[in-house]
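Try it yourself: sequence plus pyridoxal-5'-phosphate, in.
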Amino acid sequence: MHFIELKMNTDVFASRHIGITQKDLNPMFETIGVDNMEQLIQETIPDDIRLKEPLNLPQGISEHEFLTHVQELADKNKVFKSYIGLGYHESLTPSVIKRNILENPGWYTAYTPYQAEIAQGRLEALLNFQTMVSDLTGMELANASLLDESTAAAEAMTMLFDVRSRQQKKEGVVKFFVSEEILPQTLSLLQTRSNPIGIELVVGNHETFDHGSDFYGAILQYPGKHGQVDDYAEFVQKAKANDIKVAVAADILSLVMLTAPGEWGVDVVVGTTQRFGIPLGYGGPHAGFFATKEDYKRSIPGRIIGVTKDTDGNPGLRMALQTREQHIKRDKATSNICTAQVLLAVMAGMYAVYHGPEGLKYIANKVHDRSKILSDFLSEVGFEQLNKVYFDTLKFRVRDVKKLREITEASGINLNYIDEETVSVSINEAFSKDDLKHLVDCFMKSQDVKSDKTFETSTTQILPESLQRKTPFLEHEVFNSYHSETELMRYIKKLERKDLALNHSMISLGSCTMKLNAASEMLPLSSAKWGNIHPFVPLDQAQGYQAMLKELESQLNVITGFAGTSLQPNSGAQGEYAGLMTIKAYHESRGENHRNICIIPASAHGTNPASAVMAGMKVVVTKTDEHGNIDVTDLEEKVQLHSDNLAALMVTYPSTHGVFESSIKQITQLIHENGGQVYMDGANMNAQVGLTNPATIGADVCHLNLHKTFAIPHGGGGPGVGPICVAEQLKPFLPTNPVVATGGDQAITAISAAPWGSALACLISYGYIKMLGTEGLTEATKIAILNANYIKDRLKGKFDVLYTGERGRAAHEMIIDCRPFKAHGIEVTDIAKRLMDYGFHAPTVSFPVAGTIMIEPTESESLAELNRFCGAMISIREEIDEASANEPNNVLKNAPHTLAMITSDDWEYPYSRQKAAFPLPYVAENKFWPSIRRTDEAFGDRNLICTCTPIEAYAEA
Ligand SMILES: *Cc1c(COP(=O)(O)O)cnc(C)c1O
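Structure, out:
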């Protein structure tokens, strides 16, 4: 064990990333009954899939070496002034937000707020985001983010398809109108997503669109892709009269000045909040938004934060209407989104909190005014400006685009070069007077004109009356209180303190791999040399990125054993969809279009069947046997039955039951013999890296959740990066992008808006692999397996582990059965909530088996922390024994206990305050107080409020 021998060598990153030390090993081996690590691994992973050679990757480098290296790479990126627009604009991240959120593990290491009582901070921040989006778009409700603008547009198209009138469904109305003003990457995504489910896209001019009865919906871009702002009121009116639903993709900053689409009566408004203080990051991560009407609340994709009350009737927040999410709906789902963009949504919401309505107006006016000055000036010196009505984007006719481009690029400026004679220029928040001068000089030089005219504020009114926003927005107190840095800093801290994140204690969420997100991995994200690069710049300006992304692709190829990788997908679920679409393209390339059956085990994550349906496949569920493994006999039957039409098997490995199934090779072979391809859900890759890999088990494609196995933080529910890695035969079909080509030579259309997805976040995984190196990566996997088996054996006799491998071992996670405690009146939720009193976040509850919890400690935790957790679980087990079904007034049912309860003058419980709040000695030392009592889920769903409505309105409900 390399890293452990070198424990005193502080250069070895593995010894910082991994929480277990040399001296911990023997006691741990003793607890689980093995002599050494190799024996444990042998008993855990089937022999026939073990790798024979170490990963062909370099040795790890130190943190210092990495930071030096990444700086050298950064220096290869050229930070130009980018006025390219097309949905991405340079923005100014307020330093107070950058330092207190983006760079703060209290925010970025949190999990998705399923445990509402210890997540009120980010829930409030997301409610602010929803309110901001609803207000600016003029819609009734908004979700808590989507992956980017283009996928949000695709979600609008599919949601409106799903909610077509009964008549339309009966008549098979399947046409969706797409304005030719739509952003190119959005069009590409609409193509990808429409095809498999039978939607027919018709691209055209909105002014000549006939509103025919064969259309169910339409999407418009506001302002248009090159900046023209049109009044869509009449279009929407006609559409409504013809039962055509309308979605609008809108620029969030422009809505400060422009009439909100909601006022025209549109059905959905989508877009991105990138320009609200989020770095460009060469494409992402950024928070997309989705706003709609109350009528569609049960169909809206993604998560919605809602208001409810707790046990004492006090207001509290939680994720609302979860029954409409894919993990419940499975193959009935119309969206597969799981991980979204929470951290970025939190930041964008805070940007609105910090600036407030007046600050946003100032910024929007500044951007608009500078656009006007630029337009006036250049018009006067002879350039024709083609947008009659605009907000921030101008379109110029120029004599020699090539010459202009040479001049601008030599001056460090990027424009959007539309064709031989037109360019567009998008002005942003960071555009200074000096920038204006440089830009104007470039234009003049390109046509040999000179002018000594000064820049004057333009008094012309560009926006017609009907397009001027008159409705107020962001009137709620939260947007009008925290405009000084001190106040915002304290507001952010106030919210942060309500949330339990990895900087407090272990978050042992099975399947989610909440490991260390090391500071050295995160630091480069703060640099403008990575942050301030537009996704559509010429490749020679992004050489640092290109080198990093290429190397990450090849690192992932080595780790998975595959031939090619696409970094485009922004989440695991999006990776699933991308992978299935490459399989589909592969079958089609062989003339086997009819192959459309996707077999999925019953234990699969809900995103699997949801993704299969979105890819146009039919889901066939295969059973699991009593040991939790795929029932091979049942699988054989299903494969035989569907042999002619078999497209794919989706399989999670090791399984969601926490087991390395020994029949895996037999299973993948069976699929291949019957003409299918094997998709491996890579969420559990943390149990494989360096020991086995997807290629070895016989898979053809997998996604990886870089935000699980490869150290990107969960950010409270996103960002994510979900690359797909594929075998040789699928490589030609890896996805492309319409602006910057990526992928294979028979590439499928776009899976996400940006060519390399969330490129900025990829730096984290790149650093993780680079610093751990071959040995560190493999060591991490072994310790992850060791830690899981240690917990399993520490809890032996107290809790039953539902499934193990043939030799009694867990993989890197295990399921604990809580159903037997029903006899004491105790539900799995009670255990989850009681863990909060002990300072722990609950493990995964009721996935993949209802009434159970799934524990995954990861390699980053120390033995001391594992012991604290086991101590808490054992203590809870004793409390369960004391509980009685006839006396529900017990310490578990009343959990979690808040500070208000403990300090109240009344104490009406049959146990002590000490037992309630400080059940074990270590707790008092580092007490975490849940900020509310148990939330009432049903009440919140019945009285859905999901914006920061004044509290009086809530009281009336
Ligand atoms: C997390 C997870 C997914 C979905 O990944 P996202 O990144 O949240 O979209 C799919 N399958 C399994 C088994 C998972 O644990």
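One thing you can check immediately is this: The two ends are 61 Å apart (CA to CA).
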